[in-house]
Amino acid sequence: MPGFEPRNPAYAERVQSSFDRQQVMLLLGAKVTRLAPGECEIQLPFKPELA
Questions:
Q1: Which sequence spans correspond to the domains of the chain?
Q2: Stretches in the chain below the pLDDT threshold 70
């Protein structure tokens, strides 16, 4: 988001910390692959046992 300034300059650490506390994300194998002001990209690998 061009021109967007987050209120918290440590937003990336806060988002990652919150994500890391969610144990279901570990179970699923999800990872935060990109963080930018106003954006968060999460990748989830295909797992046949979850399909």
A1: 11-50
A2: 1-2
**Residues 13 and 21 sit within 8 Å (Cβ to Cβ):** no
How far apart CA 28 and CA 47 sit, in angstroms, is 8
Cα angle 33, 27, 35 (rounded to 5 degrees) comes to: 15
Closest by CA to 29, choosing from 2, 12, 49, is 49
User: What does the pLDDT read at residue 21?
Assistant: 96
Between CA 28 and CA 6 the distance in angstroms is 29
Record the pTM.
0.76
Residue 10 half-sphere exposure toward CB, CA atoms < 13 A: 4
The DSSP bridge pattern shows strands 39-43 and 31-36 to be: antiparallel
